[in-house]
Specification:
Layout: E1 4-11, E2 17-19, H1 22-29, E3 45-50, E4 56-59, H2 61-72, H3 79-90, E5 92-96, E6 102-104, H4 107-113, E7 118-125, E8 127-131, H5 133-142, H6 147-154
Antiparallel strand pairs: 1-7, 2-6, 3-4, 3-5, 4-8, 7-8
């Protein structure tokens, strides 16, 4: 698994492209070292998911593959499981990494996240979370007193 850690801010260009930080790109483009020599990852694609909080989650192929294996276990004959599968795939897109390390985000994805020009990318271990800077600041500000409580409960 990649181990994305850190926070960076980047500008979205006029074509809706977001620069993936170099330190994050290295994590998934050179996975699977064999015999000490790095080998390129099987795909240079990220899976983009609209999250309920009004942000975007980016998954590299192996991390998304684990989620997909879980989804494949759901039954097409169970209405709730079928609904969940539909809801997830309706929120999902793929974005290829270009030679400059950028991904093109659709207008729909950018609007969902409220991103116009600037985006904050947070490394969250197996995924990257993309926020509009003002929306992220508002979320963190509204919840700044909850860190100790949440960490005590879940960590």
């Amino acid at each position: 698994m990649p181990g994305f850690i850190g926070r960076e801010q980047h500008t979205i260009d006029e074509k809706g492209r977001l620069m993936i930080p170099a330190r994050f790109r290295r994590k998934f483009l050179l996975q699977g070292e064999q015999g000490g020599a790095p080998t390129p990852a099987r795909e240079q694609v990220l899976y983009v998911l609209k999250a309920d909080e009004g942000c975007l989650e980016l998954y590299e192929p192996s991390a998304w593959g684990e989620k997909e294996r879980q989804l494949l276990k759901l039954s097409d004959f169970n209405p709730e499981e079928r609904l969940l599968t539909t809801m997830i795939y309706a929120r999902l897109d793929q974005a290829e990494l270009d030679r400059s390390g950028r991904i093109a985000l659709s207008r729909e994805m950018l609007e969902h996240a409220g991103i116009d020009r600037e985006a904050v990318i947070i490394g969250a271990n197996v995924k990257m979370i993309v926020w509009d800077p003002a929306r992220l600041d508002r979320l963190l500000g509204e919840n700044k007193g909850r860190f100790a409580q949440l960490a005590g409960r879940y960590v």
